[in-house]
Amino acid sequence: MPCGLHLFWDEAVTAYDFGPGHPMDPTRLALTMRLVEALGLTAGPGVTLRSAPAAGDSTLRLVHTRAYVEAVRHAAAHPEESDPAHGLGTDDNWSFPAVHSSAALIAGQSVAAAEAVWRGETQHAVNFAGGLHHAMPGKASGFCVYNDPAIAIARLLELGAERVAYVDVDVHHGDGVQEAFWNDPRVLTVSLHEHPATLFPQTGWPTETGGPDAPGSAANLPLPAGTGDAGWLRAFHALVPELIGAFRPQVLVTQHGADTHLEDPLAHLAVTVDAQRLIAEELHGLAHEHAGGRWVATGGGGYAVVDVVPRTWTHLVATAAGRPVDPATETPEAWRAEVHRRTRRPAPLRMTDGARPVWHDFEAGYDPADRLDQAILAARRAVFPHHGLLA
Questions:
Q1: Measured between alpha carbons, how far is residue 220 from residues 48, 379, 381 in Å?
Q2: 95 with 140: CB under 8 angstroms?
Q3: Does residue 36 contact residue 317 with C-beta atoms inside 8 Å?
Q4: What are phi and psi of 381, to 5 degrees?
């Protein structure tokens, strides 16, 4: 059955462009939107295509410091300068003239998505240009300038939400969102990510479970490098549904970085588009089961610009619209032509990697010698007791 969906998009988000050679290529955003359109998802029942203005300074300062916002504006005016104290003009976060305006626009889209869901204008809202989860209150980090998911959550709290759950399935730890709400019991942050011993930002250990006034408000499950579909799905189901059920959020906010994929050049997991689609479906179901259907979904990382990101996030949009795309569906010819025009590369032919992921329930038994099961058990033991759950 179709769900109400506000899909947030503005072509100007593609100005969030660090420049040639940087992994965060905005082509991935444009190709995603073109695939969404080519499959007819924007014309479906209950789907509204929306845009929103850039977040103003007062909104940005729900998470970021005044000095940092001013530093980003300065970086836009003087992109040739380096400001390592604020993480700008660094190896990861190059400065460019649209650094403030484009990052604020992405944040504005996520804030408007949260407002629309909270006010009952729609059940679900998606901003796949968002998910910039590494930005800290006073510093850019990991290709992220303004932390749009954290700002959206802060806006929900400002509007009166008392319990917001954030689930992050990017290959990198959702450190910036965790930092923003580390000591706030109103927000539960859950992150599944590659182990910090092998990947940036080297945080997200199971023992990171929240500040002194919010024990259990953070949950982290670091996955061994090489984890594939079966392990990723097993870990998700061993941790996330029980926590969301115990926390009873009024809104579910999610981050769907596509960089868990086996072809991603910056990380070391081995997940397929097919498993990523299943996780989107699971989070959709959890929103309906525990949050009254209120679901705000963002994109995130993902650096296989042609082969992975557009298909993964198109599946996300389709899932949120209640009109899932059959994985066997062929990608439209017009979209393939657009891929070639933009990149001179061949496009994937189908909406699937050809995988049929299966996983085994952790509750049915675990192997104490298995590194994945050790990680799952460590995460559950660290956070479950805070929620009255058995590890």
A1: 34, 6, 11
A2: no
A3: yes
A4: -65, -30
pLDDT at 1: 58
- Give the active site residues: 134
The residue extents of the domains of the chain are 5-387
Q: What are phi and psi of 55, to 5 degrees?
A: -65, 135
Q: Which two tokens stand for residue 273?
A: 């588009």
**Has this prediction a pTM greater than 0.90?**
yes
46: number of Cβ within 10 Å? 16
| CB 166 within 8 Å of CB 177 | yes
In angstroms, the Cα distances linking 391 to 160, 178, 239, 245 are 32, 22, 10, 15
Q: What are the tens digits of pLDDT across the range 58-112?
A: 999 999 999 999 999 999 999 999 999 999 999 999 999 999 999 999 999 999 9
Of 36, 83, 122, 128, the residue nearest 323 (C-alpha): 36
Distance CA 151, CA 65 (A): 12
pLDDT of residue 44: 83
pLDDT under 70 in the chain at which residues? Answer: 1
The pLDDT assigned to 116 comes to 98
Q: Which long-range contacts (CB under 8 A, 24 or more apart) does 16-20 make?
A: 16/98, 16/102, 16/103, 16/105, 16/106, 16/129, 16/145, 17/96, 17/98, 17/102, 18/93, 18/94, 18/96, 18/143, 19/94, 19/96
Report the distance separating Cα 387 and Cα 391, nearest Å.
Answer: 10
CA 252 to chain centre: 12
CATH architecture of 5-387: 3-Layer(aba) Sandwich (3.40)
Contact 312, 273 (CB under 8 A): yes
Exposure class string for 131-169: b at 16+ Cβ within 10 A, else e: bbbbbbeebbbbbbbbbbbbbbbbbbbeeebebbbbbbb
Task: Phi first, then psi: give them for residue 191, nearest 5 degrees.
Answer: -135, 125
User: Contact, 310 vs 31, CB < 8 A?
Assistant: yes
- Beta-ladder partners of 219: 190
